[in-house]
Amino acid sequence: MNEFEIVPHTGGKLRIIPSQNSVGFHHQSNHAASMFQLGFSLVDHSLSYVPIGGLGTNNMPNGSVPIYMFSDSEGFFGRTCPNCNGYFRTDSGIEEFYCPYCSHLDNTLAFNTANQQAYIQTYIETIVTAIINKTDIEIDLDEMVANLPNNKSPFVYAEERQQRHNQCKECKIRYDIIGEFGCCPNCGKLNAFEVFNEKLAKSLKRLNNASSIETDKELQHTEYAEILKNCVSDFEAMAKKIRVELLRIPATPNRKEELKKLNFQRVNEANEKLTKWFDIDFFKALSEKDKLFINICFQRRHILTHNSGVVDEKYIRDTNDQTVRLNQKIKIDKDEASKLIDITRTIAKRLFDSFESIS
User: Do residues 232 and 297 make contact, with C-beta atoms less than 8 angstroms apart?
Assistant: First the structure.
């Protein structure tokens, strides 16, 4: 499946039958189809979310007609956040959503896309006309999907596949977002540690593969150095996402400004400040030796990335590393890379769990 590819409407047949006071939908295909319903009041013209009941159950308020909102052919509904304008897809047709990007919570109507708004307007006009004229109407959505150029009809709005398909570990809702980090649209749980763990698993696989390259020690050291850089970068990416979420917590302007400037490359300082501000101590339970090791690895990532791995005065000053000398080119071995994978998993889990504990 390609990123940012248009995903067509699920199709089907929509039947509006005023003589039976009913609106029906029929779908028959080999792809996914899902829907949720809204209610349009013929009395005050208001629009509201109406849960779909079980067999034989009608939850539609008196004086209202159902408006069926259909998924795309992958079973997802496109959504647009009214706060940050971020677009995402979810397989859930619920009454309220969290935006995966900015965590804004609002009702489902506020998250309708522009295409869905046009569909709702056309749907209302069509059903009102059918009621006034007492005319049964069948709209073949499959035919529209197949024949209309550029998906112009509001009845068959398309959606767009994004980059990361996620299934929430808590509530099992599926969602599709741009980028990697986001919260579940249904329960609001952040996927940051899940993303980090996936990346760490790739680093572990890379470590095992590098271990088998016994005939080329230089290539081995290069691979171990890349693993170190990736571990540190992946931890920083997760930590920065949590920092974004922490910035949503009410605080003084000065504290927010300090939090914005928090630099996880200076990992000791970052931990001290988070412990002081939020009681988030991601070094908790680490030995002093492991704390020194983590700081050395983070600073080694810096010189590997920005100084070709050559030790400079700043590195020695920031780490007090007694195992190297000025202008030495450092080499990363398997044990160092393996230990870093284990410890970064520990501190990342501690950071995430501590953030999750904030209420």
Answer: yes
pLDDT band at 4 (very low <50, low <70, confident <90, very high): confident
- pLDDT tens, position by position, 32-83: 888 999 999 999 999 999 998 766 667 888 888 889 898 999 999 999 999 9
Other C-beta atoms closer than 10 Å to the C-beta of 212 total 8
As a whole number of Å, the CA-based R_g of the chain is 27
Q: What are the structural domain ranges in the chain? A: 6-177, 192-356
- Extended beta strands in the chain, E state: 6-7, 13-17, 22-26, 35-41, 47-50, 64-70, 77-80, 87-90, 96-98, 105-107, 137-140, 159-160, 164-167, 174-177
Does residue 154 register a pLDDT over 90?
Answer: no
CB of 241 closer than 8 Å to CB of 181: yes
Which is higher by pLDDT, 352 or 140? 352
Q: Which residues pair with 87 in a beta bridge?
A: 80
Dihedral sign of CA atoms 279, 281, 282, 285 in order: negative
**Separation of CA 11 from chain center:** 27
First to last CA, the chain: 38
Burial 303-337 (b: 16+ CB within 10 A, else e): bbeeeebebeeebeebbebeebeeeeebebebebb
Q: What is the DSSP letter of 330?
A: P
Inter-residue contact 131 to 58 (CB < 8 Å):
no
Cβ neighbours of residue 130 closer than 8 Å, sequence gap 6 or more: 16, 18, 136, 137
Look at residue 54 in the predicted model and tell me its pLDDT.
66
